Amino acid sequence: MAKSKSPSPSQNAPEDVLSSLEAILDEVAAERDARARLLSGMPAAAPNAKSKPAKAKTKAGKPAKPAAAPPAPEGAAAQIAALEAKLEKARTGLVNRDARIADLKAERDALRAEIEELRASRSWRITAPLRRLRG
């Protein structure tokens, strides 16, 4: 019976953990960037697009005067307060995400250091020929 050349789950466990941590970091960073774009007023679909609003001109070629703002509706103050609360909640979420990213990066770095320490150990070097024979 031929032996399988795939490593046992315990041998790839640190690499699997690192891969999954990096995937989580990428997802969290993408979500953070999307939220930051939303907070800054940039469209979420085009994060790198630098578009300038078109300026309206009159027949004489002079810039048109901006239209006067419509009168504020009665519930505008309540809407503004609700939007500001929502904005603050989003900012808090970003801070929490940044802290989670920092924690995950620290954990990833610690795992990488542990893997390097293991690979530099005497037992790892002594058993290297056995691992090469096994495939």
Automatic annotation (TrEMBL):
Look up the coiled coil feature and give its residue ranges.
94-121
Q: Where is the composition biased (Low complexity)?
A: 39-51
Stretch list, region Disordered: 39-75
**Does this UniProt record's set of keywords contain Coiled coil?**
yes
Q: Which UniProt keywords apply?
A: Coiled coil
Biased segments, Basic residues type: 52-62
Q: What is this protein called in UniProt?
A: Uncharacterized protein
| Native source organism of the sequence | Jannaschia seohaensis
